[in-house]
Amino acid sequence: MKLKQLSVFLENKPGRLRELCALLADNGINMITISLADTEQFGILRLIVSDCEAAKSLLEEKGFVAKITEVIAVEVSDEPGGLRDVLQVEEAAEISVEYMYAFTIKSGENAVLLFRFDDMDKAVTALQSAGFKVLDRVALFPNTEN
Amino acid sequence: MHTQWNDRESLIHPASAPDYLREEQLRKLQLQRLRAMTRHAYENQTLFRERMEATGVTPDDVQTLDDIRKLPFTQKTDLRDTYPYGLFAVPMSEVVRLHASSGTTGKPIVVAYTTEDIEVWKEVMIRAFACAGLHSGDIVQNAYGYGLFTGGLGAHYGAEALNATVIPISGGNSERQIMVMRDFGTTAICATPSYFLHLIEYAEKMGIEWPDLPLRAGIFGAEPWTDEMREYIEGKTGIKAFDIYGLSEIIGPGVGMACSEQSGLHIFEDHFMIEIVDPVTDEPMPDGEEGELIITTLSKKAMPVMRYRTHDITSIIPEKCECGRTIRRINRIARRSDDMFIIRGVNVFPSQVEAALLNVEETLPHYQIVLSRSGGMDQMEVQVEVTAETFTDTVRGVEAVHKQLSDAIAHILGIRVKLTLVEPNMIERSMGKAKRVIDNR
Question: Which helix (H) or strand (E) holds B307?
Answer without folding.
Answer: none
